[in-house]
Specification:
alpha/beta; Rossmann fold; eight-stranded mixed beta sheet; four-stranded mixed beta sheet; 12 strands; 24% helix; 23% strand; globular
Length: 238
């Protein structure tokens, strides 16, 4: 890998089934950060948990990396702190809160440039949502209005973590799939990849590999969705 190739792990969720926090992805995360000495943890998606407690949860879930994980606090100089690290990890929570705080701490462009320049990146849930061009396919409630819905644009397709096709009995609202279909009709030139819990994308340079326990789906406006099996690889740019 050259120093300017993308090195990403985009996970649907921090837990799979009844497993513990980050259990299912521990080896994948450890492998990606194997050569990183200082990993910045961005907790800004956390709304109902303190950022210190969030960082402690992550360190407990990744004991082999715990001493290398550095918490980004709200009062830190974001760009300066980012520049002192060689890896970055962005946790889940509320995607709107996450993106708003990244903008307000002057980190959107800086984070994009750092990762495009070779910095290793792991995100789960909201941390994966922001890797796409926008956050307009998140499942989250817009509890706050960020300056823009434009995100990091590390990958050229929209992401929908926590995707599920489950429909409760006697449910009469729109399903997850129907809401995403609305996006595709309104934005016919956009690609949407749906990631069920237990699914992730490993990006190396321009190659993407589906990792985890379950297949990803590339959604289509006409309903002819394409299943991307675990282990399947495709080019980042289609």
């Amino acid at each position: 890998m050259t120093e300017r190739e993308l090195n990403l792990l985009l996970l649907s969720s921090s837990r799979v089934g009844g497993g513990g926090y980050l259990d299912s992805a521990r080896q994948l995360i450890g492998n990606l950060f194997a050569n990183c000495q200082r990993i910045l943890f961005i907790p800004f998606a956390g709304v109902t948990i303190s950022h210190a407690d969030y960082a402690q949860r992550v360190r407990a879930g990744l004991p082999a990396l715990a001493e290398r994980i550095h918490l980004l606090n709200l009062d830190d100089d974001g760009p300066e702190t980012l520049a002192s690290c060689d890896g970055v990890m962005v946790g889940g929570g509320n995607t709107f809160a996450l993106l708003d705080r990244l903008y307000r701490h002057a980190l959107v462009r800086e984070l994009r440039d750092a990762v495009n320049g070779g910095m290793s990146y792991v995100g789960w849930s909201a941390g994966s949502n922001i890797a796409g061009p926008t956050i307009r396919t998140t499942n989250d409630m817009p509890i706050i209005e960020p300056p823009s819905l434009a995100a990091l644009n590390l990958v050229p397709f929209q992401l929908n973590p926590h995707y599920t096709s489950f429909v409760p009995a006697n449910f009469h609202g729109e399903t997850r799939r129907e809401r995403l279909a609305e996006f595709m009709v309104a934005n016919p030139d956009s690609r949407v990849l749906a990631l069920p819990e237990g699914c992730g994308l490993r990006v190396r340079g321009t190659e993407v590999e589906v990792v985890g326990e379950f297949a990803a789906l590339e959604l289509a406006a006409d309903g002819r969705d394409l299943e991307l099996a675990v282990g399947q690889r495709f080019n980042l740019n289609g």
